[in-house]
Amino acid sequence: MLKNLVFSRILKNRMKFLLLFVGFLGSFLQGTAAIRWFDPQREAQQVVGGQGWKTDIRSHIYHRLPDKARAQVREGIWYLGCQSAGLYLRFYTDSPNISVRYGVEHDFAMPHMPATGVSGVDLYAVDKHGKELWCGGTYRFADTIVYHYASLDTESPYGREYRLFLPLYNRVKWLEIGVDEESRFVFAPATQERPVVVYGTSIAQGACASRPGMAWTNILTRRLGGELVNMGFSGNGKLEDAVIDLLAEVDAKAYVFDCMPNLTGMDRDRLADSIVRAVRRLKKVRPGVPLILSEHAGYPHGSSSARQKELYTVCNEAVRQAYERLKAEKTEALYLFTAEEMAQPLDATVEGVHPNDYGMAALAAAYERKLREVLHEPVGRFSTQQPVTQRREPGNYEWRERHEQVLSLCRERSPELLLLGNSLTHHWGGEPAFRIARDSAGWNRTVAPLGAINLGFGWDRIENLLWRVYHGELDGYRADKIVVMIGTNNLNDVPDEEIVEGIRFLLGAIRYRQPAASLRLVGIPPRRGEEAHLKRLNADLEAMARETNTEFLDLTPLLTGPDGKMDPQYYLQDGLHLNQAGYRRIGETFVK
Description:
With 592 residues, the protein is α/β, with parallel strands linked by helices. 36% of the residues lie in helices and 17% in strands. The protein is built from 18 helices and 21 strands. The chain has helices spanning 2-32, 75-81, 115-118, 202-205, 216-224, 241-248, 268-285, 306-328, 339-342, 357-375, 399-413, 423-426, 440-446, 462-470, 496-513, 531-547, 556-559, 580-591; strands at 35-38, 48-49, 88-93, 98-104, 122-126, 132-135, 138-140, 145-149, 160-165, 172-180, 185-187, 196-200, 228-232, 254-258, 291-294, 334-337, 417-421, 452-456, 481-485, 518-522, 551-553. Strands 2, 3, 5, 6, 9 and 11 form a six-stranded antiparallel β-sheet that branches. The chain has a five-stranded antiparallel β-sheet with strand order 1-10-4-8-7, with no helix packed on it. Strands 13-12-14-15-16 form a five-stranded parallel β-sheet, sandwiched between helices. Helix 14 runs parallel beside helix 15 and helix 15 (496-513) crosses helix 16 (531-547). It starts with a helix and ends with a helix. Residues 1-13 and 15-32 have low confidence and may be disordered.
């Protein structure tokens, strides 16, 4: 009797499981019936971000290393270099439902790291003001792994910007992104920005994050807002010549050497020699590029085990010894990142070595502080001093696409005159070309002969222009003159003090990157109903300009009538944007 009862319950449970599975399968098939799928491998341009070798041949787009590396590095490094840690896809869609399906080559999980981190994907959205949003979804691990994100807010007919981080510890064989059939979908091309290159161990690769977005390197790239190349090789971050030579090929913004966890047990002097050799090898090719030498962050059980403490203490003594030797040799742009600066919490690891999400977040925060110091990308306390992207008018233009156009033009032309600003500059004329050009003829006559590029972006605020300055628009060339007109889009959102201090902060960032250029700050032009307010604010901006030895230009006398009000003959109906007569009125004065 008991035997029959047990059998009956087992059968009942199996039937229940079968019904649930059939229900899930039916729901899945029904949900995918009206889905359009997009394959990154079929795109004409490169759309995989986080790769250091953009033009070298890859047999697979989801490999971190180019094919030529296979003949240069050990098999273990090549194997790990084919895993997709740090790689991502950026796209735009207005679909409220997003699905991702893909295949991987190896086991889904490890004993100390879940399948969602080893083999999962992770989706983030960015709203129109540059705020990061995380997208939670359902997932199923099988021969084809499926992630589904439902009921997403679309924000506008042009949708939102998304970034999909790929698995940390597996090889992606194929991948497709699906959206509702009638929805808009566009992959964004990979950025031309110079990346931060992180060379390290399993900790840099992402062990043991619960999901890809929580790897400290991926947290860091989101916090800095730029490109990061993950060269973490689990168990294989050993400062090898072949790897150093590969890294030196990347036109990096900065390098991080975080290899000490794979070099414990070595004699201190021998380890110091290895560090010195690796730095010299890289610096021979990239002498002026910042290089951060990281100490071992330590083991949390070092306080209870003298042996464990000795292992990382010897490593850190070797790093400091190597750093002092290299500084004595006058090595350029070399920085030490100490265990004290990393400040890892007691409960920051899974098993005493690999960070959990708590440890990953702490490491990312510490590296952000260090890199902002090294790269001169500080963040202030006001919103106007916190660099951020935007996408406020995608119906007119794609903000990131214009940023990439500016990077290309500056690299190709080495402009002599830069006009930095918002739509008041953007809509004037010049290059990058834009469908709205209020006075192309005047621009071509007055501004273009001075070797100018238009760095105006519609709807930009001070903090958006600051982001662009931090992300390469002023790098790699020497301008003669820079004219800045920004702040009108911050009016009424923040106090005047934040506008003044934000612009002061911005001018400092510009001067650091273009110290030889003359710098002119243009006051905020008059706008309907704000004339009295702007008169006071421009007086404050002029005083700040004097304090910072910056030339100041007030356009108010050129654009107002005898009553001090904006003169409508120079403006469009909105009382904010200039018409052709307005641009001709200010043209020569603006750039002289």
